[in-house]
Amino acid sequence: MLAGYIQTSLAFGAEWQELALITPPLLPEEQWAPALKVLKSKQLFTIENGEIRAPSYPGIGLDVDEEALQRFRVQRAG
Description:
This protein has helices at residues 2-11, 28-32, 66-72; strands spanning 47-48, 51-52. By secondary structure, the chain is mainly α.
């Protein structure tokens, strides 16, 4: 969801977007840790001086590992 907010802001040229990340007691990096299992990068988003930096990857800025997606895919009971 956060990636979508960032993409929307960047698409129309917003210089900033205020977000409330309310997940005590987790820090944003701790909250996002499970997503790293399916990404090639070591971090989901870069935070500098309390700001999330715009991702350099295309789309929503996530460098998805397709092989990892296959490993974690849930199979439907058939």
